[in-house]
Amino acid sequence: MRTQRLSAVLTIVLALLLGAGSAHAHDFWLERQDGAFVLRYGHRGGEVLALDAAKIKTLSCRKGTEAPRNVLTSATVAPKQITFSGPCALVSAFHDGGFWSLTPDGEKNLPRNQVPDAVKSWRSQQFAKWVDVRSPLAGQPLGDAFEILPVSDLSKVKTGDKATFRILLAGKPLSGATLAIDHKPLGETDDQGEVRVKLRAGTVESVSASFRRAVKTPEADSEVFEASLTFEVAR
């Protein structure tokens, strides 16, 4: 019994050190495939996991100067992906992961006020975005609560070159957000919400951003924001 309790305590300590936990080690991204846009969840370049369509709140497409339109109702939903076709310069999706609580027995997808033995709790919000780097709209915000914007002209940035990105939270530049590629943190945003990193992929790159802020509510101790930006690398 003592050994089991010690193991549970070590599990909690490790989870606290690593951050939100396994629920946030999964990628959420958009990409183009066979002329269509595909939304997936799991590990980009590896295992694709089941996607809970009920947690996808918006799937937006912008192709011109008009406001983005939600194409979720016309998309094709499958167990591991959501697909739609259309001429879009910008595409984004919002995955509302809900509330999570860490307990001695692991993570539960429930708010703190429903988990008596919770030692940590958070709300998860994930955003995915795809941009056409050749479009003049590529650097414009779509209005997501947490969003990555390319500052550099990505149509001219090749593999091995550096590019600058800006992170927005509620439409405003955010300092202290972490930018990563393939789960490897490459830098934090400055006071202008910007960070400069080197592109690694040869054809399609995906950068991700994450940020946690403390809150004091009965449901959670913090909010965890994650976003991805996927685009074709210039050749």
Q: From the helix content, strand content and strand pairing, which structural class follows?
A: mainly beta
Number of beta-strand segments: 17
Q: Report the helical percentage.
A: under 10%
Spatial separation of the terminal alpha carbons: 60 Å
Cα radius of gyration in angstroms: 18 Å
Counting structural domains, the number is 1
How do the helices and strands follow one another from N- to C-terminus? HEEEEEEEEEEEEEEEEE
Strand content: over 45%
Tally of separate helices: 1
Q: How would you sum up the major sheet?
A: 9 strands, mixed
Whole-number average pLDDT? 90
Unreliable residue runs: 1-23
Shape: globular
Describe the structure.
- Residues 1-23 have low confidence and may be disordered.
- A hairpin with a 2-residue loop joins strand 5 and strand 6 (81-84).
- The protein has one helix at 2-18, and strands at 27-33, 36-42, 56-62, 69-70, 76-78, 81-84, 90-103, 106-108, 120-131, 146-150, 162-169, 172-173, 178-181, 184-188, 194-198, 204-214, 222-232.
- The chain has one domain (2-232).
- Strands 3, 4, 7, 8, 9, 13, 14, 16 and 17 form a 9-stranded mixed β-sheet that branches. A 4-stranded antiparallel β-sheet has the order 1-2-6-5, with no helix packed on it.
- The radius of gyration is 18 Å and the shape is globular.
- It is mainly β.
Write the layout of secondary structure elements.
Elements: H1 2-18, E1 27-33, E2 36-42, E3 56-62, E4 69-70, E5 76-78, E6 81-84, E7 90-103, E8 106-108, E9 120-131, E10 146-150, E11 162-169, E12 172-173, E13 178-181, E14 184-188, E15 194-198, E16 204-214, E17 222-232
